[in-house]
Amino acid sequence: MDKLIAFSGTGHPALAKAICKHLDLELGESTVIRFSDGETRVKIVDNVRGKDVFVIQPTCPPANENIMELLIMIDALKRASASRITAVIPYFGYARQDRKDQPRVPITAKLVANLLTVAGTNRVLTMDLHAGQIQGFFDIPLDNLYAIEVFVDYFEKKKMTNLTIVSPDVGGIKMARAYAKRFHAGLAIVDKRRNSPEETEVMHILGEVKGKNVLLVDDIIATGSSLVEAAHALRQAGAQKIFAAITHGVLSANAVEKISNSEIDTLVITDSIPLAEEKKSQKIKVVSVDELFAEAIKRIHFEKSISVLFDGVGR
Ligand code: R5P
Question: Which of 37, 119, 152, 309 has the least CB density, counted as fewest CB within 10 Å?
Fold first, then answer.
């Protein structure tokens, strides 16, 4: 392990430390400062010459700051002669703009992939990408982990019965199917229409939910509209308890308030994004992906297969 070194940006140092603890590794020393005009300056304090370097930084809000900081850290590491640089991005932001769905719009997921590559990233380690195809936006190796087993551990302890897994939109069917298979549960789908970035409307529910306990699964909760609207429609359709397992808790705008006032019993998110103190709520539980990332980093470092971490759940 003497060639392995990990650094954290300012995006989520608590997760970076927790990952390093599982690796029995001290986090590498670096400083990040802001100039008075807002520009970022990074200094890598530890020697990285010839090292296998992992930079841990989710590109969560403030997304622009966190992305820029990650790029600058990678540039500094490349210029300091690191032998390999892996960007560990527990939450890959800007992923929802992944195709031209209207004229004259960008594909930001591809743009961020290009920026990372040009900065000097040799490989990427991420989790529950918004769309699997984003892997193809990179011409460098990318490992996409799945949070499913972490959620399975949480919900198995709750001994839930009579369960149906629900996707809150058609785009999430593959993810929901993987959960239904893993939980040996039924599957239902909410047919949602998005009227604006903050507003969604439920059109239909496909599948049987009457009298069932339901678990809504999704990759991202941002404004909470998709989840809260889906929960309401499910309750109207006769669902009993309503739980949600959502990998990335962006929780923007008034999402927490919406969830508190909703029919949702418990929302479980991972710690891919830090949960600010003011966003903590009785209804929101956090499960950690620190061990999952630590194991993946170890396997990448020792050139071992990492597919054992998600055997049978790949989508
Ligand atoms: C959409 O395709 C995603 O999987 C999520 O359903 C969506 O990003 C959630 O956004 P919001 O919480 O703002 O409804």
Answer: 37
95-114 pLDDT per residue, tens:
999 999 999 999 999 999 99
Q: Where are the domains of the chain?
A: 4-146+290-309, 148-287
Residues forming the active site = 192
User: Tokens for 20?
Assistant: 């390093």
* Tokens describing residue 88: 């560990």
pLDDT in the model for residue 314:
55
Region for 249 from its dihedrals, namely left if φ exceeds 0, alpha if ψ lies in -120 to 50, beta otherwise: beta
Closest Cα to residue 148, out of 100, 195, 182? 182
Q: What's the whole-number mean pLDDT along residues 12-35? A: 98
Q: Is the CB of 223 under 6 A from ligand 1?
A: yes
**Chain Cα centroid distance, residue 18:** 16
pLDDT for 306: 93
Verify whether ligand 1 is closer than 6 Å to residue 168 (CB atom): yes
Report the SS3 class of residue 39. coil
The pLDDT value recorded for residue 246 is 98
Q: Quick check: 267 pLDDT over 70?
A: yes
Joined tokens for residue 234: 């499910």
pLDDT over 70 (residue 315): no
Domain 4-146+290-309 sits in CATH 3.40.50.2020 = yes
Cα 197 to averaged position of ligand 1 atoms, centre (Å)? 9
Residue 68 pLDDT grade (very low, low, confident, very high; cuts 50, 70, 90) = very high
Distance CA 162, CA 209 (A): 10
CA distance 281 to 275: 10
CA 288/CA 262 separation, integer angstroms: 25
